[in-house]
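hiii so um. not sure if this is the right channel but i have a protein structure encoded as tokens and i wanna go backwards to a sequence. like what aa goes where. can anyone help
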């Protein structure tokens, strides 16, 4: 029996009406008839009407290992039975343990870790550290970036469609480099692209006059449509920054924990630059529990004179999830799985898209693949096509995300849990292929 049979007033349609009556209009919601997900297992979720879906979005990359992973569920429930929360005013063993592990894998020497409850708050803290350390409120960010929804995170978010108004206290300079195949440098080869972007950054810093605190960048832009500049670009940027004492903040909210396959962190695709000064993380580490955080070397982290805490940051029940999840990830080499299965999936998506008139590009790293849709001929972003493919995929039991594509959501985002199997990759790609073919016919 489904929720709807049991309680018609609780049907998804009714719930949607109640949602609209009480929640903000700008709260993003997928599908013409939004679904209510009630439970999950592995790479699958079920809705309140009993439909089963292969989850290729993992709750926006939050389900890093698997839905209802027994190791995580057990750790959470055991901790919950002991105590849910006190505060980090007292010693918190799970928090210390997770901080030790994250410091060890961060690549940042003499690392200190501060836990928050979201990616936004992590970036807020990173910006607070950088502006305090450098005594400047000027920040460089990439165009097409997304860093969260607080005043300061919005203030470094390059795309106005995700941050329509901002009275940010920060002064932000936007440079190129997040999008390889659009924009003024798209036709250049990688080396020339890096050179042009670096000149752009140098020029921008010259115009800034005075000190700049930091550059904040996602190694692969997430909400921006799983897009990045060539490997090594951020290393070239780093050289320019280092000469001027400017800090580098790597926003790894989507790219951390082996998601990109080849590397544990996104910044490692620019490893010549060494580790960033500040790294932020969130999303996947808690496998759905709200953990965010900042890693920085002690000298940067400790520049705040304040005696401060985050009330819920480091809460033992979330930390228990983080520890169990990270253990599982490392013990089962899920980064390796992301590389292997992600490679196959990308190949399969490229084959699925071949011949489709609405696909402009298929790109990806590890288990982070973007299928950019565009109007044939003009190459203009085509958000309606992305919405249609999303609906068609859902009808056949596949959930994917969308985002980016310049100012509109024209990129299908594929980011399944990192335990994805080859058979599931094949199944999802087949459904997407069918959805693309149907959309081609309906729109063509
Ligand atoms: N940074 C990046 C790269 C993100 O993708 C997001 C969210 O999508 C954030 C920061 C904000 O994280 P949160 O939604 O947890 O506040």
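sure thing!! here u go:
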């Amino acid at each position: 029996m489904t929720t709807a049979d049991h309680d018609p007033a609780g049907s998804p349609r009714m719930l949607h009406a109640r949602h609209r009556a009480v929640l903000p209009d700008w709260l993003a919601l997928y599908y013409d008839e939004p679904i209510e997900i009630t439970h999950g297992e592995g790479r699958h979720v079920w809705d309140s009407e009993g439909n089963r879906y292969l989850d290729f979005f993992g709750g926006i990359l939050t389900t890093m290992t698997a839905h209802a992973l027994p190791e995580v569920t057990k750790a959470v429930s055991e901790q919950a039975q002991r105590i849910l929360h006190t505060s980090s005013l007292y010693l918190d063993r799970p928090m210390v343990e997770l901080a030790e592990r994250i410091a060890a894998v961060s690549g940042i020497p003499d690392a200190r870790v501060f836990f928050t409850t979201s990616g936004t708050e992590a970036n807020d803290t990173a910006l607070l550290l950088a502006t305090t350390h450098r005594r400047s409120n000027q920040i460089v960010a990439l165009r097409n970036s997304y860093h969260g929804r607080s005043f300061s995170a919005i203030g470094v978010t390059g795309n106005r469609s995700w941050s329509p108004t901002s009275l940010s206290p920060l002064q932000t300079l936007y440079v190129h480099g997040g999008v390889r195949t659009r924009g003024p440098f798209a036709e250049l080869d990688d080396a020339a692209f890096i050179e042009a972007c670096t000149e752009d950054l140098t020029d921008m810093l010259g115009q800034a006059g005075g000190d700049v605190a930091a550059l904040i960048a996602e190694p692969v832009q997430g909400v921006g449509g799983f897009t990045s500049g060539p490997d090594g670009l951020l290393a070239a940027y780093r050289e320019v920054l280092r000469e001027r004492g400017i800090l580098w903040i790597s926003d790894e909210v989507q790219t951390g924990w082996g998601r990109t396959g080849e590397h544990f962190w996104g910044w490692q695709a620019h490893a010549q630059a060494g580790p960033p000064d500040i790294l932020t993380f969130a999303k996947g580490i808690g496998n759905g529990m709200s953990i965010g955080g900042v890693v920085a070397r002690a000298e940067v982290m400790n520049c705040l004179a304040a005696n401060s805490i985050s009330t819920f940051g480091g809460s033992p029940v979330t930390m228990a999830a983080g520890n169990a999840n990270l253990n599982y990830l490392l013990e089962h080499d899920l980064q390796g799985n992301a590389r292997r299965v992600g490679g196959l999936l990308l190949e399969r998506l490229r084959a699925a898209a071949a011949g489709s008139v609405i696909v402009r590009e298929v790109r990806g790293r590890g288990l982070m693949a973007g299928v950019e849709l565009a109007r044939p001929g003009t190459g203009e972003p085509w958000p309606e096509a992305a919405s249609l493919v999303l609906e068609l995929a859902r009808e056949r039991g596949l959930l994917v995300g969308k985002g980016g594509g310049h100012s509109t959501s024209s990129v299908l985002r594929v980011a399944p849990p990192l335990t994805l199997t080859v058979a599931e990759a094949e199944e999802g790609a087949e459904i997407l292929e069918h959805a693309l073919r149907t959309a081609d016919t309906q729109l063509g």
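oh and The mean pLDDT is 94.
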